[in-house]
Amino acid sequence: MRVRAALENGAEKIDLFFMVGLPHQTYRDALKNVEFCETIYNAVGGDPRVTYFIAPMAPFLDPASTAFEYPERYGYRKLFENFEDYRQALLQPSWKYTLNYETDAMTRDDIVRATYDSARMLNAFKFRHHLIDEEVYRQVDQRITEAVGYLQAVDQILQGPLEQRQVLLGDLRDRIASANGAEICGDRELRWKVRHNYAGPLSLLWVGFTLLAGEIWREAQLTGRRLLNAEERP
Q: Would you state the torsion angle of the CA atoms of residues 3, 7, 118, 150, taken in this order, to the nearest 10 degrees?
C-alpha cells in the first residue's frame, strides 16, 4: 500500500479525501467510503498521521472539462446551460441548489443526504479510534444535525408560496450561512504543521537555488543530446 510506504519513509501527515457525487456512485457506495477508511486504518496500524475526510465534489463540473462538455458520456446530467443559470445558482440559499449536476446514480437530494450521512459515520469512526476527542466528535455531530435541519427548512420554504419565500428565508439567513459553511470535520484536522525554519529567507533562497540548479542541469542534458544527434547525422 502506497500510504503505508509513505509513512515508512517519513511522511509526517497524509490527508485522504473521499468524494461524494462521482459518476456511477450510489448512496450506498458513498457510505462504503467509511468502511474503506476502516480498511486503511487497519492496514497502517492505526497510524494517527493519516487523516480521513469525506466531502461533496465541487458544486460545478469544471467548465471546459470533458465531463462538462460531454456529461452523459461520463455519467452526469448537467442542470445549468448558460451564465445566467450559474449566476442564479450562486444566489441560492442552500448548497444543494448550487450543484450544477446530478449523476446517473444520484439526484441532488441523494448527494446531499449521502454527504451528511457518510460524514456522520466518518465522525463516529474517528472518535471510536481516538483520532478525535469527544469534544470534537460532539461539535461535528451537532454541526451536521443543524446543517441537515436548516437545509430541510430551506426546502420547505422553497416549496411554499412565492410571496412568502423572501421573508421566511430572511428569518433563516444567519442560520443558512452557518449551515452552508458548516464544517463536517474538526476545525484543526486540515491544518498541517509548518517547520519554522522552512519559511525563513535562507531556506527560501536555498529552495530557489535548488530549483534553478535543476533547471540548468536539465537544459544542459537536452543541449548535449541535441549536439550528439547533430554529430550523428550524415
A: -130
